[in-house]
Design goal:
There is one protein chain. This protein is mainly alpha-helical. It has a domain at 39-89. It has five helices and no strands. It has helices at residues 2-6, 10-13, 26-38, 41-61, 66-90. Helix 3 (26-38) packs antiparallel against helix 4 (41-61). InterPro entries: DUF6074 (IPR045720). Pfam families: DUF6074 (PF19551). This is DUF6074 family protein.
């Protein structure tokens, strides 16, 4: 019985490590959507660029290939945009300043 427990198939002991920094997690997506929802113009653009660059830098530092980093950043951008849409659908609509 002890031998069965110590002998593992190769699939269980060998594998690929996938980098998943916390910067691309759900909490960060929600935080970025909130920030973008309250910022406007150049401030929003500067914030957005800095966040995407920060995530790309984290992924590169973790050893992810550049081609994969681009895909992950695009996925993050899409996730934040979806969160923005959902938050506007579920939240109160802001009053127009032109009224």
């Amino acid at each position: 019985m002890a031998t069965e427990m110590t002998c593992r198939p190769a699939a269980l002991s060998e594998g690929v490590v996938i980098a998943f920094p916390s910067g691309t997690g759900t909490a960060n997506i929600e935080r970025c959507a909130r920030e973008l929802g309250r910022r406007h113009g150049a401030d929003a653009i500067e914030f957005w660029r800095a966040e995407c660059r920060r995530i790309a830098d984290q992924l590169l530092a973790a050893g992810m290939p550049e081609s994969d980093v681009g895909e992950r950043v695009l996925q993050f951008q899409q996730d934040v945009q979806i969160e923005l849409v959902l938050s506007h659908q579920n939240g109160p609509l802001p009053k127009s300043r032109n009224r």
